Amino acid sequence: MSTLLNSQAVAKKIDGKKSAESLLENTRREVDELKKRGVYPCLAVILVGDDAASQIYVRNKLRIAEKTGIKSVELCFDSQLTEAELLSTIEGLNKDLQVHGILVQLPLPKGINEAAIVRAISPLKDVDGFHPQNAGGLLQGQRVITPCTPLGCLLLLQEYGGDLTGKHAVVVGRSNIVGKPMASLLLHAHCSVTTLHSRSQNAAQLARQADILIAAVGQPQMIEASWIKPGALVIDVGINRITLADGSTRLIGDVDYDSVSMVAGAITPVPGGVGPMTIACLMQNTVLAAELQTQQAVLSQPG
Ligand code: GUN
């Protein structure tokens, strides 16, 4: 007797944990090489205030740094810290030759100007790639330190989608951290790029033309199946914690996974998709920062 099968294909699940593990394997080897040359990569992470999500992110970053052989320094301050005190801490880390990467976990408490803090970090130690010098360099296609989440998304797209040349990529969201650098990276990978945002008209209709869709809006399950072209590659950057009726909490993305996975060709889960790649790219950026600073030190030697 034949069994009636659902004719709709279910999207391939993109395994961000596995891809991150193999990226970290490479980074570990690069760290070992640097150590043989007497360079001990070190990442300083600054956490201000008691935001629960930020505490978890920072803990994960420090744990993976240790696993990768990267030394880490954690600097925690309460939310009363002033902008001047934070600037002075960053100044100290900029001057410290033992520290190669500086990451200030965002968001910062009200009263501290994030843009001023990001500008204060030396561009060579800016492992987030948020400094205007790195952001501008990325736009111009220079080899700069690139924001970790968009870089992780690009690596997943290349692994699961191959050559991206000529594909139509739609980025939903225009933040400085994800949306804008993501659009730049996709343009450099020769995609045709559309950015959608809260003021876009006909957003779902535009999104349905995408071979590649990146969701980075911070709105739980906003992207539904009706936004997706059959077979599209879907990358979900959202990490939203929701509380269920029984009081328990759950992490969900910006994409409605269950409905979208009936239309898409491949899709990242939340958790286990982009998140692990972001951290793996942070480790890669720390190694790149250590290399850039070592080259700089050689170039600035007299004679
Ligand atoms: N907060 C949310 N994402 C990030 C990130 O990528 N870097 C920093 N520093 N803070 C964040």
The computed structural class is alpha/beta
Report how far apart the termini are. 84 Å
Low confidence ranges: 1-6
Order of helices and strands: EHEHEHEHHHEHEHEEEEHEH
Largest sheet: 6 strands, parallel
Q: Cα-atom Rg, whole angstroms?
A: 20 Å
Strand content: 15-25%
User: Roughly what is the average pLDDT, rounded to an integer?
Assistant: 96
How many alpha or pi helices? 10
Strand order of the largest sheet: 1-11-8-7-5-6
Estimated helix fraction: 40-55%
Pathway: One-carbon metabolism; tetrahydrofolate interconversion
Protein name: Bifunctional protein FolD
Organism: Tatumella punctata
Catalytic activity: (6R)-5,10-methenyltetrahydrofolate + H2O = (6R)-10-formyltetrahydrofolate + H(+); (6R)-5,10-methylene-5,6,7,8-tetrahydrofolate + NADP(+) = (6R)-5,10-methenyltetrahydrofolate + NADPH
Tell me about this structure.
The protein is an alpha/beta fold. Helices cover 41% and strands 16% of the residues. It contains ten helices and eleven strands. The protein has helices spanning 16-36, 52-68, 83-95, 114-120, 132-139, 148-161, 179-188, 203-207, 257-260, 274-299; strands at residues 12-13, 42-48, 71-77, 101-104, 168-172, 192-196, 212-215, 233-236, 240-243, 249-252, 266-267. The strands form three sheets. It has a six-stranded parallel β-sheet with strand order 1-11-8-7-5-6. Strands 3-2-4 form a three-stranded parallel β-sheet, with helices on both faces. A two-stranded antiparallel ribbon has the order 9-10. Helix 1 (16-36) runs parallel beside helix 10 (274-299), helix 6 packs across helix 7 and helix 6 (148-161) crosses helix 10. The longest helix has 26 residues, at 274-299. The structure holds guanine (GUN). Guanine binds next to strand 4 and helix 6. Pathway: One-carbon metabolism; tetrahydrofolate interconversion.
